[in-house]
Design a protein that fits this description.
Blueprint lengths: L1 H18 L3 H14 L4 H12 L5 H14 L4 H28 L5 H13 L3 H13 L6 H13 L3 H9 L11 H12 L1
Length: 192
């Protein structure tokens, strides 16, 4: 139908607005795309991902997904999107809480690692690496679990030299009681 085609075109225009930083126009265009063809998963999910999620408009996303469920109850992707949004909201809230604590200077090494993992989950690898460096600078930075997690995160961020330096901190603690998979991961990172 023509409505489906117009919805796709409007969603494409909305995406261009979103990528050029014209958020209010993107918001309006995506809403129009959804209204033109309410059963369109493309318009719905792009609207959620490109406009609502970056703005942290969690209630609007839930409303949109509820609407999608009513219009297209057989759309299995809505349930997946809802689970993803809930996880994303939890990660975002955790980051905000930990960053507020860090601003007060009261974050522990393990909390910096948690912050780094959350930042990394959002693709913010530079900030994740900075949090890892701060974790290693705390009194807990010499603990096995903190150094090991720091090395993993740095390796995943592509910072091989920094990752190897973090893993060198765990070498004295590698004994027969340590899980062989952990030893292999330490060795793999040191070998790169």
């Amino acid at each position: 139908p023509a409505q489906k085609s117009f919805s796709k075109l409007r969603a494409a225009i909305a995406g261009l607005y979103a990528h050029s930083g014209r958020h209010s126009l993107a918001d309006q265009a995506f809403r129009e795309a959804v209204l033109l063809y309410p059963a369109s998963p493309e318009a719905t999910f792009r609207y959620a991902q490109e406009v609502l999620m970056p703005a942290g408009r969690w209630d609007a996303i839930r409303d949109l997904l509820d609407y999608t469920d009513r219009v297209d109850p057989n759309n299995s992707r809505t349930k997946q999107m809802r689970a993803y949004v809930e996880k994303l909201q939890a990660v975002t809230a955790s980051i905000a809480q930990l960053q507020a604590k860090a601003a007060k200077g009261t974050l522990s090494g393990r909390e910096y690692i948690t912050l780094a993992q959350n930042l990394q989950a959002l693709g913010r690898n530079g900030q994740a690496a900075e949090s890892v460096r701060k974790a290693l600078a705390t009194p807990e930075g010499s603990l096995f679990d903190v150094s090991f997690q720091a090395g993993r995160i740095l390796a995943q961020c592509g910072l091989r030299g920094d990752a190897a330096n973090a893993m060198k901190r765990v070498l004295p603690a590698l004994n027969d009681a340590v899980d062989p998979r952990v030893k292999l991961e330490v060795g793999a990172i040191l070998a790169e």
